[in-house]
Amino acid sequence: MKKDSLLKSSLWISISGILSRILSVIYIIPWNIWIGPLAVGAANALYGKVYNIYNLFLIIATAGIPSAISKEVAAHNALGRFDQSEKLFKKYTIYMSLVGIVLAFIMFFGAKYVAIVLAAGDMRVVTPIKYLSIAMLIIPALGILRGYIQGYAFISYSAFSQVIEQIARVAYMLYATYTIMVLQKGNYMSAVNQSTLASFIGATLAYLFLLWIRVKVRRSVTVADVKTTTELPTETPEINFSSMLRSAIPFLLVDTIMTVLQLFDQTTFTWIYELILHASQKTIDDLYAMFGFQANKLIMVLVSLAISVSASVIPALSAMISRKAGKDKIQKLMQNIVQFTLFIILPATFGMIAISRQLWTVFVFYDQSILGSKVLIVSCVEAFFYCLFMILENILQVTHHVRKSLVYLVWAYLLKIVLQVPLTLALGVYGPVSATAISFIIMAHFAFRLINKQFQIVDKDLGKKLFRIFIDGIIMLIVVVLADFLVVKVISDATKIGAMIDIIICGLIGVAVYGFLSYKDGSLKILKDIRDTKIY
What's this model's pTM, rounded to 2 decimal places? Predict the structure, then answer.
């Protein structure tokens, strides 16, 4: 087995992340149709609330350990300490499995109290939370195994396991929903319950796949790779729970921020609209489903791109720093990371903005597409700056700025809390998303400024490269908007099929335009620059 390069690992995670997110978006089309227009708002709002709660427990269950494991395994392996990597993996599989059991117990027997605290007392979420508690029994062990394999620089296999997990989850969701809603003419609550159970099925299949991959990973280590005691540095880090927890908690807090803010949205939005604006439950469900579930599902495609870059950056930087590489090499890697991040995420954001109305028609309903597309555009801006913030925070932690990264996280929370009520009252459904976006914009600025102060990333050459990427993205955006305007003159986007055709045509035009411009001005060379960058 050949280790993945930084480019290969990023591409694999990007592909698997995009495929997983596309699957999680595409299933909405038949799922919404089978739920029916009368119940779809309530079903989406309920499902969104339940999964925000589940994501919080999910992140607590993994406790940032997968990213920390990835970082530590890569550091040990770079020094030839493969025995320590194995001890680390076994020890934390046991620890985190016990954590999963405790959290499953809390979710199942304390679902009522969870609903009161995290869902503004919406008792509809109680039963789905109990169904999701079963997934907690395997999710922590799955996270440990993924981090372990990423640390060995076989990130492509970890990425592929996510595709397996998503395919199994979506397949069961659609099967259960069709059976309940179409064949049995059942209630949407039953369909939501079974849809949540699908998480356990997907996670189990992904775990079995990675167990098989682990056997192959261990066989890939040759005798020459393993260093003897005399060859090792005199000072090497020892494995203990407190040091691993200290390494994991910052990753946990970064991973948690979006979920916590979404939970904050679903409680405060309900309170604001009930107590101040005196809106009906249906209005609250419809509006919350719009930004808290439907738009959120679509922008997760962008977030998956950031996760792909971040997951590759952590072990690569960790290994480079553990080898005490020169500052110029780290600086070059940082510049490549900044350029590559913008090169990937910026055109994806502009592309979604350009065809936002057609995306809403395909994945939700045409009659909501005007308001929905506007919500999606604001959500895309939020997602773009969240992606930058998340990557910068992970870089801060790997480069020993953990305390500063936590300070920036706290300020992001405080800004969100201060802005939430006034922006929601002033902007309505756009308010919560705008408050989050502003928080990420401000704190991403401070995070980048700190990194740049240490490594002097920004210079005239990088500035020119980033400016070219931005101009290429703007030109692509204008061309796609014009193409969209012309296509809808010929093909009606009022139907899902028509909107899908429009998306395909405009998407191909956007890729062609951006690819051509990047090739002509040299921006495409970033792929070549990082192609041979090894993780360790």
Answer: 0.70
